[in-house]
Amino acid sequence: MAIAPITGMLRRGLLTDLSIAVGLGFAMANTFWYGFHVPRTVARDNYYRKLEEERAARQKA
């Protein structure tokens, strides 16, 4: 066999690296989603809600 099977130390290192990568990826995705995306979406929605309320108030007057 040209390539030796993954065993022992290499397997543990591979699992550790994959676990760390997936964990950090998940953490960074949550940081982006709840730290940037959600607040910007709420700010956008509030802006358009305010514009709509102003437009409705002008039409009633």
Write a compact overview of the structure shown:
This protein has 61 residues and is mostly helical. 87% of the residues lie in helices and 0% in strands.
- Figure out the total of helices: 1
The secondary-structure element order is: H
Quickly give the structural class: mainly alpha
Overall pLDDT metric: 92
Q: Tell me roughly what share of residues is in helical segments.
A: over 70%
Biggest sheet layout: none
Range of strand content: under 5%
| Amino- and carboxy-terminal Cα gap | 85 Å
Principal-axes geometry comes out as: rod-shaped
Please tally the β strands and state the result: 0
Sequence stretches where pLDDT stays below 50 over 5 or more residues: none
What is the rounded Rg? Answer: 25 Å
GO cellular component, one term: mitochondrial inner membrane
Family: Belongs to the fungal cytochrome c oxidase subunit 7a family.
Protein name: Cytochrome c oxidase subunit 9, mitochondrial
Subcellular location: Mitochondrion inner membrane
Question: Can you tag this structure with a few keywords?
Answer:
oxidoreductase; mainly alpha; 61 residues; transmembrane; cytochrome-c oxidase activity; Cyt_c_oxidase_su7a_fun; 87% helix
